[in-house]
Design a protein that fits this description.
The protein is about 25% helix and about 25% strand. It has two domains: about 200 residues, Rossmann fold, CATH 3.40.50; about 100 residues, Formyl transferase, C-terminal domain (Methionyl-tRNA Fmet Formyltransferase, Chain A, domain 2). A seven-stranded mixed β-sheet has the order 5-2-1-6-7-9-10. Strands 12, 13, 14, 15, 16 and 17 form a six-stranded antiparallel β-sheet that branches. Helix 1 packs parallel to helix 2, helix 1 packs parallel to helix 6 and helix 5 runs antiparallel to helix 7. It has eight helices and 17 strands.
């Protein structure tokens, strides 16, 4: 089965590697153009491109896909299927019908919950206990196609976006191999998505990562996990940015509660901060230009004391 693969980041690279190892002839890879990244803003290839080049797979990086040239290219590749995973560009409908089996998308949620760009982060933010991988037959809508295969994945209480990303990336790689085997044998039955239970996982922005101390501590703890490793939850103290990499919610003390954002206690176990409801214990923090430190290490060199107010 000849495969064209479309994807860009690390999440998508796992599935591309799995296809190559399984012996599927990947005749071409579509990936986004190289863009500046990291602190130095160096122009570097994405993870999918690196995997493709290492395996001598032809790479194409169009700025846009809605052109007759792209349709001609895809037809010339004579692909049986296009596999799409976190590509980052919308595929025009004319491209979807060119391969024999169309285009299959590897999506990191159990559709129709969390359609869209950030299903991993939104599932953690919402407090979901379960997510998974959906292999979907792509159509013109945003993650609206019929589901061919689903596999569940638990979300553990301490999962961050990074840990859940890694488990789902591995699960996605296994599931697309299973799906292609079943497609080739005609064993998959497309199932339309339910019209109820639809939610959208909008792209995460840096603005969302600014901690609102009026929120409940439970929600802020979820946000911290959802925004780790990017864009990382952050607050300010005396005009200095402080990133929060790890935190947990705690029940309110019996003492009179201060205003949200007020530091209640500072010790090696954590920095306890009043929230709109409950207390958030900050466990790992980072100053601008520094590295992430445990609370005990952080407070040794940072002037933070009970009664101080974060977010101001």
């Amino acid at each position: 089965m000849r495969v064209v693969y479309a994807g860009t980041p690390e999440f998508a690279a796992r599935s591309l590697e799995a296809l190559i190892v399984a012996g599927y002839p990947v005749v071409a890879v579509l990936t986004q153009p190289d863009r500046p990244t990291g602190r130095g803003f160096k122009v570097l290839p994405g993870a999918v491109k690196r995997v493709a080049l290492a395996s001598h797979v032809p790479v194409y990086q169009p700025e846009r896909l809605a052109s007759p040239d792209m349709q001609s290219l895809l037809r010339s590749l004579d692909a049986d299927v296009m596999v799409v995973c976190a590509y980052g560009l919308l595929l025009p409908p004319p491209l979807l019908s060119i391969p024999r089996f169309g285009a299959l998308n590897i999506h990191a949620s159990l559709l129709p919950r969390w359609r869209g760009a950030a299903p991993i982060q939104r599932a953690i933010q919402a407090g979901d206990s379960q997510t998974g991988i959906s292999i979907m037959q792509m159509d013109a809508g945003l993650d609206t196609g019929e589901v061919l295969l689903e596999r569940d994945c638990p979300i553990y209480p301490q999962d961050t976006a990074r840990t859940l990303h890694d488990r789902l990336a591995d699960l996605g790689a296994r599931t697309i191999i299973e799906a292609l085997e079943k497609v080739g044998r005609g064993e998959l039955n497309p199932v339309p998505q339910p019209v109820t239970g639809i939610t959208y996982a909008h792209k995460v922005t840096k603005a969302e990562a600014v901690m609102d101390w009026n929120k409940e501590a439970v929600q802020l703890a979820r946000d911290v996990r959802a925004f780790n490793p990017a864009p990382v939850s952050r607050t300010v103290f005396r005009d200095e940015l402080v990133k929060v990499w790890e935190a947990e919610a705690s029940a309110p003390s019996e003492k009179g509660m201060a205003a949200p954002g007020t530091v209640l206690s500072v010790d090696e176990r954590g920095i306890s901060v009043v929230c709109g409801q409950g207390i958030l214990v900050l466990k790992m923090l980072q100053r601008a230009g520094g590295k992430p430190l445990t609370a005990g290490e952080f407070v040794k060199g940072y002037p933070l004391a009970p009664g101080d107010r974060l977010g101001e």
